[in-house]
Amino acid sequence: MLKRIMLRRFALGALLLAGLGMVLSVFVFAQEAEQIKPIPPSESQDTVPQETYVSEVILSAPWAKKNLIYGGEESPPGEFGLETFIFPQDSLKEELPDPPLPEGPTSFTVAPNGDIYITDPLNKRIQRFDADGNFVSVSPIPHFEGSKYVQAYQYEWSLICADRSNNIYLLWWEDYTEQTLCKYDQQGRLLATYPFFPEVRSRGAGNKLYCDRSDRLFFEYYRKLTDEVILSREEERLLKRPYALFHFQIGTVDQLFTPEEQKASLGRGGRENSDFSKIRERAWKELPGKFWGPEIWDYEYVDQKGDFYHYWPTKQGITITKWYKP
Question: Could you give the 3-state DSSP secondary structure of residue 260?
């Protein structure tokens, strides 16, 4: 169980134990998912005038000093759990020169009514803010009993979205072949589960989960161009097949599609917005500070009106900037 988790993002604990035979006071789990690095987009050829969109920082939330997972004390509402890891000895820096990134939020989304949701896995909750960035509530999320893992479940949290009734959808990501979407109410009660059809091969980076105005649930993800099922991630790497963006309908807020129906809805590409490429480029040029903090599954969100939201962590906390047409 832990072996697969420790193959993921922070493999520090395993490497030190195996290579140096030492017992560390800090136990770090890692993720199998590819690291979601905040890489700016390439220069676009879009000619959309820059003045058509304006930007506004609508949410700023600080990091908390304590969290439930590592500190045994839940962070105050409106603050987010963060855990940083250090080398126990300077000599280890020669073996692993880059310390692991901090742990914390994994995803954010914007509901149809404009409310903003951000995962806070180190406190086992999802936090909700209104369209102006004011704290609204927290939804405690229990461990998913269908998961294979009993410990360190916070590393399985990935994407979230919300519907018009403010139900929350959280994608539990166990590895690139196994994902389950869970539906919760505002109190954190599990209402339904939405498994994906078996052929889904999700690499992690760039995936998107959203609910449209018609209450349809969609998943966008990058996958290999062929439908051939590969037995292991290592075989995928050896084949070096190119990735492409695909999407499919998971179901609706009231109905889960069968695997056959999900697969039948599979198509190339994702949601398009004529202004998206230029605004995305501008957003990455006008960042609110130097990147520092946990990596998340997706730093951007485009709502049904075409407004663009950009998530950015700094040493002070989380910032969300909204780009919109006045």
Answer: helix
Q: How far is CA 36 from CA 39, 92, 171, 298, in A?
A: 9, 25, 16, 8
Instruction: Please indicate, yes or no, if residue 204 is contained in any of the structural domains.
Output: yes
d(CA 158, CA 140): 16
> Mind listing the pLDDT tens digit for each residue in 150-174?
444 455 788 899 999 999 999 887 6
Q: Show the domain range for 231.
A: 2-34+52-324
Residue 86 belongs to some domain of the structure: yes
Mean pLDDT of 187-211: 82
Number of domain units in the chain: 1
Determine, yes or no, domain membership for 184: yes
pLDDT at 91 over 50: yes
Q: How far apart are the first and last CA of the chain?
A: 51
| Residue 40 is assigned to a structural domain of this protein | no
- In the predicted structure, residue 225 carries a pLDDT above the cut 60: yes
